[in-house]
Amino acid sequence: MMTSPAASTVPALLEVDDLVKHFPIKAGLFGKPSAVVKAVDGVTFQVAAGETLGIVGESGCGKSTTARLLMHLITPTSGALRYMGAPVGTMAMPLKAFRRQVQMVFQDSYASLNPRLTIEDSIAFGPKVHGVSTSDSIGRARRLLDRVGLDPIRFAGRYPHELSGGQRQRVNIARALALEPSVLILDEAVSALDKSVEAQVLNLLLDLKDEFGLTYLFISHDLEVVRFMSSRVLVMYLGKVAEVGPTESLYNSSAHPYTTALLGSMLSMDPDHRRTAAPLAGDPPNPINPPSGCRFHTRCDFSAALCSTREPGLTAVTALHSAACHMADPASGHPGKSSATAAKRVVST
Amino acid sequence: MNAIGATVVLEPVQRSPGYWATVIRRFSRDPLAVGAGIVILLFILMAIFAPYIVPHDPYKGMALRRLRPPGSEGYLLGTDELGRDMLSRLIYGGRLSLFMGVTPVFIALFFGGIIGVTAGFVGGWINTILMRIIDVFFAFPSVLLAIALSGALGAGIANGLISLTVVFIPPIARVAESVTTSVRTRDYVEAARASGASGFRIVRTQVLSNVAGPIFVYSMSLIAVSMILASGLSFLGLGVKPPEPEWGLMLNTLRTAIYSQPVLAALPGLMIFITSIMFNLLTDGLRSAMDIKA
After folding, report:
1. Does residue B36 sit within a domain?
2. Is A194 among the domain residues?
3. Looking at the complex, does the CB of residue A156 fall below 8 Å from at least one CB of chain B?
4. Which of A100, A108, A112, A114 to mutate to test the interface with B (most CBs of B within 10 A)?
5. Which ipTM did the prediction report?
6. What is the number of structural domains in chain A?
7. How far is CA A319 from CA A8, A230, A234, B187, in A?
8. pTM for this entry
9. Which residues in chain B come in under a pLDDT of 50?
10. Mutate which of A102, A116, A138 to disrupt the B interface (most B C-beta within 10 Å)?
11. What is the domain range of residue B255?
């Protein structure tokens, strides 16, 4: 299962089709929606078995909402989700069966463990729900604790507040694995850890992926970590997919100006090539009232007239790499980077 | 994967003291709260074994020895307006007063807890409907509501219990709703949901253990209020009927003696005062014992 990473030949394990989530903002006595936050607005992607798909983007771009939609923790406004070709939530793939296949690790390691349950009881909860006997569930919990690097004798009977952040996140990983899932959604799972612990947990995740044949959805705002972990990367901007492609292709030759700006925000390792210009000015626009046409045109260096009127679709740059930018589509009529208005951008030190 | 599925004999592991064990340990180090608990326990024992410890029959009066002051020969705390032994009546009165204080709160804890946890966990329009109904009861001052209900139902112990229960359901439901609402959105509840557990199972295994403490402490604090309200109902003639000994009712019947025997008239009130103070101290101790990170 693990040996063929070629995304094009392996049928998609998880297919997300035009996923939309609008949060109504209620106002007034009878809660008539006065506006909607378009948190996720038509997101389509596939996850192949055995790959790690990294999802990056600024705060509020819809990364975590997408994760919660995938877990069915919130119901989508519209859109479809298929697991191995079967629509989730139907007879072919009931929600409970789906949840056994797809598990999630949350960012806040403390909030995601019940403070009243011992570590082993927290991990054993999932298997018990799915009909595994209590003693077998506890046994499984202890073997998983051992596997994530925590001695069961010392840790199984402890409570979450007695553990460090890194230890708790290991427990959360064990809890997610207790249902023997095939897909793990890691929603900023290492973001709250300090760098040395983060590296340990990332290596643990890589080992577990090989051992259990897992598929990862790795959501993070940390571009270096995503590059380290992912085989493919998906860039989100204001609830939409900006660009998706194989990691090295995307990091080395990004086709979307937003991706370029995002990568430009990474810290340089070379003091002689320190970047002085801000890669991007301003804040992301309000998702209640996103810009017309291309959502990025208000901050884009290469914005042309058509960018504010026509919305670009995902266009293939290479076979596996596509971007939602008019410049990626020669037929769009965009004048291209030659007419760059970049000079007008405010340069700050 | 195979290693994960095999059955093994579970070895003993190191265990940390659980939350409740920690609470009990912290509580036991609070002398004031423990003292209050002991006093309440003594009162309860006194009420249970009243027939064996009273020096006189609390119902039998004698016109010749009316309103003897405390310290009279043979009558340690004197006699009441009908010549009945005060000590015996105060001991017997504890039975009804404690019963009327504790029972409505526990019945209300059961119903109010169910209403509040349901509203808090389910949320949405069910929450809105349940909590707006609860709000209607909040519109009445609790004393007024208890009096109105008892008045409508008629005097008697059972009706007093019912009206006090109805008075305490709304505040308990409100507290239960607010703590449940705050727990519902925690990540561990989301994680439990993501593992495919049903809502009822999540409430039972994940939510209740986290909300039970605050709801219980709040209910404990209502016991003192309930005792005072129950006594108040009896004082107004809406609760216990004569000749039953009950502290509130005794306060009423002895009020005419307030000028001739003020100490005697104050005794039932003193009992109500001591008991409610003790319940408050116990609640405070419990609250601070439960105020830990875990």
Report:
1. no
2. no
3. yes
4. A114
5. 0.82
6. 1
7. 9, 18, 15, 39
8. 0.82
9. 1-2
10. A116
11. 45-57+74-290
